[in-house]
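Before the break, one more example. Copy the sequence into your notebook; we will annotate it together after we see the structure.
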Amino acid sequence: MTCADLQTLLHGYVDGELDLVRHLDIEQHLVGCPDCARACKQLQVLQAALRGKSFHFAPPLGLRRRIEDSLRDLDDSGPRRGVWPWLALAASAALIVFSVGSLIRFWPTPEDDRLAQEVVSSHVRSLMIDHLYDVKSTDRHTVKPWFHGKIDFAPTVVDLAEEGFLLSGGRLDYFNNRPVAILVYHRRQHVINLLIWPSTQADAEEPHALNRQGYQLLHWLSGGMTYWAVSDLNAAELRTFADLVIRRLAQ
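Here is what the structure looks like once it is written out:
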């Protein structure tokens, strides 16, 4: 891939819209080209700035009270002259503010984007170089002890075979500046990688869905741990898997 080729694809790469082959080609090019790597970093910084809190607009204080006061001004004979246009304008503005606020609240953060790319890369590497397992077993009592002494936390290993998600082993990876435990499950012919590492947040967080390079991802926090599930399963089945894991963890 040339620098000119990369420039035409860079926005799609940063937005996570490219197919897997082009994504990996760009990653390889960025490793060996400081100029393109710098351009990519600048675009990522700009993207993060556009998603920052400065673009969050809250409804002005007293908007609801002013709308209610306008409604009370209506007498039995109908709306006073000039009231309805202003009321319609206020309601439209409130709807727009609410919609924009909702979009920004659920928009993935730059940190989520970065981790999502790393999770997908880990998943793809495990499939490309045939290294799904460091320990291969369907028995959680074999998989869980294997991690002892290799990492500074103990991942909970749940058996979901009866629900159609077969535990098949585990492995270690390293990203986000720390070792990560990965549990491997199968749903028919589909591989699910469940990545686990300690969270810096104490509160639980419901699963949040993302899609990168054609892979479905779910990210959530539970019991002081960060969880990322990634697979080429459809979104509904991956969510079922995540819900089952969460319920088992709560037992």
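The longest strand covers residues 166-175. Residues 54 and 104 are 11 Å apart (CA to CA). Try to locate both features in your own notes.
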